[in-house]
Amino acid sequence: MGFVDFEGRRYERRDGESVLDALLRCGVExxxxxxxxxxxxxMMRATGGAVPEKAQAGLKDTWKARGYFLSCACTPDGDLAVxxxxxxxxxxxxxxxxxxVSGDVxxxxxxxxxxxxxxAGQYLTLRTAAGVARSYSIASLPEDGVxxxxxxxxxxxxxxxxxxxxxxxxxxxxVQGPAGDCFYLPGDVEQPLLxxxxxxxxxxxxxxxxxALRSGHRGPVRLFHGALRVEGLYLRExxxxxxxxxxNFEYVAAVLAGEGPDVEVGEMDGVILRRIPDLKGWRGYVxxxxxxxxxxxxxxxxxxxxMRDIHADAFLPPAA
Length: 320
Ligand SMILES: Cc1cc2nc3c(=O)[nH]c(=O)nc-3n(C[C@H](O)[C@H](O)[C@H](O)COP(=O)(O)OP(=O)(O)OC[C@H]3O[C@@H](n4cnc5c(N)ncnc54)[C@H](O)[C@@H]3O)c2cc1C
Ligand code: FES
Known about the structure:
By secondary structure, the chain is an alpha/beta fold. 20% of the residues lie in helices and 32% in strands.
């Protein structure tokens, strides 16, 4: 057992319990989402006591040095005094526009009102004025001048409902991050690239593809985007235009059921491996639904792709 000091009060932390779980159990409101150390929503700052290294994994060095840590991943050995993350870890931003690009996917464009350095394909934590914090992958390039996100609107989801019913162009939000290593690495411009994802897993892949092509990547770039049905596919025109402009870029749409022009039918791994049975020497990016990401990572590896060449971001749902 230990204690967590927060805003002038002392809370008991049970053995093995994270700082986040202890505070939530005691009725303290702390923003959080994945509870798995990946979304960044629960970041806090230690003002006394020692934070285990694991609780700072993936944070910027400057933040680590100032005591920031992920409270869901923090099970300290002793007592800890903590404070909420300060405003300087967040960049204020405004909603530029909101566009429904399919029945349940909203393209959200934000303009940052401060410095926010990112690579297309990384993810950020979006915070509303009401304190809802969720992670989203970045589909735009820094030179676009806006930060573009693709959000799947879930019935009853807190961020989803805010975007669907309340958010308007001009609204103020904040972004935190970026994080993640799912982005284009210049270096070997001849290496073939494979990108695969379903639903809004397209967001980071769209950014990475554009980054690679703009950087002069010469090897083949193959993007596989999947959905349950044709209506779930989106940005089809943009992707077709990109393919028409770049000889080395191919866009393949796949659905599990139904049919449509230029659409493959079948499981994503089968569609990929039918076209590229041997993936030796390829670099891969897989994003989106966690079970699909896990399955694809395994299939790509078994088909010859080196594990070090597989970059993945699983869109972990919020913990119960
Ligand atoms: C690294 C990372 C990157 C992400 N990138 C994106 C992205 O680019 N685009 C995107 O749309 N999402 C992305 N997500 C997921 C996103 O952060 C939110 O979890 C999602 O938008 C739901 O938020 P919400 O507030 O609308 O719903 P919540 O209020 O959090 O949840 C509402 C209900 O829906 C359920 N639920 C939540 N997510 C799912 C799901 N995936 N499948 C089934 N049920 C679910 C919850 O359990 C809950 O019952 C990412 C997550 C991570 C960790
Ligand atoms: S990183 Fe802690 S809730 Fe997501």
